[in-house]
């Protein structure tokens, strides 16, 4: 994945930046771009609403820059066009549809039956309950992709059983949190939709800037296909860790003896529990990867399928529909509000020349692409401690992706790397959303530090998965090349 020209030398721009450290002056517009980025991050960490922070701070800095003669307000003429582009983007229409499908499935209580059935299958084995939770998390990820609902549901249903069976609280909490976040990387995923949408435009622009006027298409379908195998591998690594703990630390994950059921009855229960999610997986993900439907069309079909399943299970009521519609509207409004704010931030940052500053810095680093990619991954990982994945996608990707695409890399590989990295933002203390979700359903006797310690091994596994994909990029690029050419 390294660029063909090998290690880069220091560029004049990077030399100028190094001279700045020795006391020379930085151009005012570039200094303003750095201050803008710092101010936005500081305001978000203080708890101000993300969408209004991105837009409000950017407008304030734009007027300050205009008064200083270092910013042209003409850049803001592009805002109406950008807003229209967001609203008319067919790919982003899939976001509320996937949200509706996930919330409706959560209300249909499919997870309840899955957890009970998988527990009966594996519960009699050491570590069996943990493995059951991971398998259910993987199935829910491939059929819903809603992290919050998955973590809360599995926490309410499986965590008491794991603690009652004698599981170490750290291992139990860590397993539930990590399994619930698989919906970030296993398609269909809202995170992959917004990430692919952000990367596709940047990739096309970077190819044109390199003089490549025949741009290979990159879409949500490519990223879905690329993330499928890494997502399944990550689930397998979780299971291997649980098996390791069951063998070498058996006291942390004892067997859970439940009432025996006949083999025929168990097979029927497994079939009844697995058919609904597998049906949706084949209908939604299969139609996307098979080229039968676009992500938006498949998401709409998934919404209808989830509603039908809720009806067949007797869960489709007016109150449920009202609750599902309200949750869908809130989550979708949050995503699009942040996207609009990020568009204004991106315009202002570019108006100050910040994109050129970042581009020259990353492309001029000693070590070339390897060092630049490492820094980007570290920045995204650290930002995940305090920011949500949507905020990181809309802020970081438009800034750093153009410089990374100047190297000869696959957008699918870069998207998968960023997707796995963003998944850690749900687990990293102190503001990982999965930690908040599990904290809300755990007994008061379990300390917050216990939850933090429980997720650490799974964060290490995610970092290991990043290293594997970096070393063997074909894991991410093979399936798209086979399915999509």
From TrEMBL:
Keyword Kinase annotated: no
Transmembrane ranges, per UniProt, are 31-52, 58-79, 91-110, 130-159, 171-196, 223-249, 270-292, 298-316, 328-349, 361-382, 389-407, 413-438, 450-472
Q: Which InterPro entries match?
A: DctM, TRAP_DctM
Q: Which Pfam families match?
A: DctM (PF06808)
| Cleaved signal peptide residues | none
Q: What membrane topology does this protein have?
A: Multi-pass membrane protein
GO MF, one term, reads: transmembrane transporter activity
Describe the location of the TRAP C4-dicarboxylate transport system permease DctM subunit domain by residue ranges: 37-475
> One GO CC term of this entry?
plasma membrane
Subcellular localization is given as: Cell inner membrane
For the keyword Membrane, the answer is yes
Q: Which key words are in the record?
A: Cell inner membrane, Cell membrane, Membrane, Transmembrane, Transmembrane helix, Transport
Name the job this protein performs: Part of the tripartite ATP-independent periplasmic (TRAP) transport system.
Q: In which family does this protein belong, per the annotation?
A: Belongs to the TRAP transporter large permease family.
Quaternary organization:
The complex comprises the extracytoplasmic solute receptor protein and the two transmembrane proteins.
| Protein name, as recorded | TRAP transporter large permease protein
Upper lineage is:
Bacteria, Pseudomonadati, Pseudomonadota, Alphaproteobacteria, Hyphomicrobiales
């Amino acid at each position: 994945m390294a660029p063909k020209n090998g290690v880069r030398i220091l560029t004049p721009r990077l030399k100028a930046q190094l001279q700045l450290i020795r006391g020379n002056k930085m151009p005012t517009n570039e200094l303003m771009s750095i201050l803008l980025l710092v101010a936005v991050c500081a305001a978000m960490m203080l708890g101000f609403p993300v969408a209004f922070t991105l837009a409000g701070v950017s407008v304030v800095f734009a007027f300050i820059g205009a008064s200083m003669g270092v910013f042209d307000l003409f850049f803001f003429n592009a805002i109406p066009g950008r807003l229209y582009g967001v609203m008319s983007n067919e790919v982003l229409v899939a976001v509320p549809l996937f949200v509706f499908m996930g919330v409706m499935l959560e209300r249909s209580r499919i997870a309840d039956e899955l957890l009970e059935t998988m527990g009966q299958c594996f519960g009699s084995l050491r570590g069996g309950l943990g493995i059951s939770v991971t398998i259910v998390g993987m199935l829910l990820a491939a059929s819903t992709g809603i992290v919050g609902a998955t973590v809360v549901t599995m926490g309410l249903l499986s965590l008491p059983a794991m603690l009652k069976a004698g599981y170490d609280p750290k291992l139990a909490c860590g397993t539930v949190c990590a399994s619930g976040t698989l919906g970030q990387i296993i398609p269909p995923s809202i995170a992959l939709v917004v990430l692919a949408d952000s990367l596709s435009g940047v990739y096309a622009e970077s190819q044109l800037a390199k003089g490549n006027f025949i741009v290979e298409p990159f879409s949500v379908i490519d990223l879905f296909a690329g993330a499928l195998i890494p997502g399944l591998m990550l689930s397998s690594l979780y299971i291997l860790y649980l098996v390791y703990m069951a063998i070498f630390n058996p006291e942390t994950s004892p067997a859970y003896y439940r009432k025996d059921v006949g083999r025929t009855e168990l097979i029927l229960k497994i079939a009844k529990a697995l058919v609904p999610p597998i049906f949706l997986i084949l209908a939604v993900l299969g139609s996307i990867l098979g080229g039968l439907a676009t992500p938006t069309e498949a998401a709409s079909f998934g919404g209808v399928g989830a509603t039908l399943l809720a009806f067949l299970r007797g869960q489709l009521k007016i109150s449920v529909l009202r609750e599902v519609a309200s949750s869908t509207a809130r989550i979708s409004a949050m995503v699009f509000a942040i996207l609009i704010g990020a568009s204004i931030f991106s315009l202002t940052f570019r108006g100050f020349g910040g994109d050129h500053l970042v581009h020259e810095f990353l492309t001029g680093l000693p070590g070339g692409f390897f060092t630049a990619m490492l820094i980007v991954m570290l920045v995204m990982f650290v930002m995940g401690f305090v920011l949500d994945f949507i905020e990181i996608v809309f802020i970081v990707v438009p800034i750093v992706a153009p410089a990374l695409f100047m190297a000869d890399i696959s957008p699918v590989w870069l998207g998968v790397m960023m997707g796995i990295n963003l998944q850690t933002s749900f687990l990293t203390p102190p503001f990982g959303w999965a930690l908040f979700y599990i904290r809300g359903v755990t007994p008061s006797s379990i300390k917050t530090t216990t939850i933090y310690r429980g997720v650490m091994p799974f964060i290490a596994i995610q970092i290991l998965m990043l290293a594997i994909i970096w070393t063997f990029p074909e894991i991410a690029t093979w399936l798209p090349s086979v399915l999509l050419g």
